[in-house]
């Protein structure tokens, strides 16, 4: 079937706006969901290929989407729901021609500092490569919260197709797990395991046709974390070799199983310079990617706890020179840590984007003003640094330490702009602020 034109009406229930993407399952459109000619919301509408889901097997094939809809309605999971794409509807449409569908919430994407929009986690990895450890673990933690909830259900729900293309940005600081077309209920009576997602994201046992367990999703999560940190999939060369050899589907599958038996090379600072300070992360990933399922983390909740213990143990504390972050401001500290990591790596555009995100979310704090001002201390941008410092100095209840820091940054800005007398005056005011005097 050819792509549907904008304005196409499907059963009087959906109006197509534009094509979002396509894959082996079919095509996804941005569409208006309507009831009695009243638009309820915009949705991501997945239309399946006619040969893949038919009227005869639609109930069976879409059962998992229906189960997830029921679980998302019935279960109390406020934290997980922030990171799960909500399944809104599923069924069979008859006009303009019979097609099975799943309607899901539409993720807005992420506007990149250099222009364009990141629609998937893969887009974010490409834009931020190499991704700082702090940011990589923030991303994977959001994915883990969603999958951990699925694994904690009774019986557990497995995703079975976790990959960077199925994790969608929804604004500046939120990721959502999507594409539950292959989700399975483990150990339950919802049919037998009969397939898998993309070969590159599968565990050894699913590649071998064995019924998956939560540890199978853990393997995929390990592949995902490896890809985020390295900027490439650990088995990206396997498909290249299979194509060069002319392998059929069975041959590709065997080649992937053998690659997993050997295991990927350990990540090093050559893959991501940030890893020189985080050697233990390699051990976490290696445990996710053990060939035997019983040797991995048992489910996503266990892996989430491991990542949480790692991040809270001090290993991810990034020095923030000249920036005082209030106690308990965890999110602000993370954003500024990411900005500082990019600055140290000589990537000013990404650093400013992160500091700008911090300022947008915490405009009443001095720390993001100081961070962004520091990043603006260049011959071209020093006036912007002055404006940021002035805005910070105008904040109510500013502490003497924060005032002094902003005044020192003002002095540096004047020095950068070739105005030493004004710089000296700012230094005097900074010294007075440190003593608690009027600034």
**Low-confidence runs (pLDDT<50, min 5 residues)?**
185-196, 314-321
CATH superfamily of the largest domain: Transferase(Phosphotransferase) domain 1
Helix content bin: 40-55%
Task: Give the neighbour order of strands across the main sheet.
Answer: 1-2-3-4-6-5
CATH architecture of the largest domain: Orthogonal Bundle
- Calculate the terminal CA-CA distance, rounded to whole Å: 70 Å
> Overall pLDDT, averaged?
83
- CATH C-level label of the largest domain: Mainly Alpha
The shape is globular
Beta-strand content: 5-15%
EC number: 2.7.11.1
Domain Protein kinase: 14-311
Binding site for ATP: 46
Protein name: non-specific serine/threonine protein kinase
Q: Could you characterize what this model shows?
A:
The protein is α+β, with helices and mostly antiparallel strands and 439 residues long. The chain folds into three domains: 9-105, Phosphorylase Kinase, domain 1, CATH 3.30.200; 110-312, Transferase(Phosphotransferase) domain 1 (Transferase(Phosphotransferase), domain 1); 330-434, Serine Threonine Protein Phosphatase 5, Tetratricopeptide repeat, CATH 1.25.40.10. The chain is 45% helix and 14% strand. It has 17 helices and twelve strands. The protein has helices at 58-61, 63-74, 78-81, 121-128, 133-152, 204-207, 214-230, 236-245, 249-262, 280-288, 300-312, 330-344, 348-361, 366-375, 382-393, 400-416, 420-434, and strands spanning 9-10, 14-22, 26-35, 38-48, 87-93, 99-105, 110-111, 117-118, 157-158, 167-169, 175-177, 184-185. The strands form four sheets. A six-stranded antiparallel sheet has the order 1-2-3-4-6-5. A two-stranded antiparallel ribbon has the order 7-8. Helix 12 (330-344) packs antiparallel against helix 13, helix 14 (366-375) runs parallel beside helix 16 (400-416) and helix 16 packs antiparallel against helix 17 (420-434). The longest helix is centred in the first third of the chain and has 20 residues, at 133-152. The chain is globular. Mean pLDDT is 83; it is low at 185-196 and 314-321.
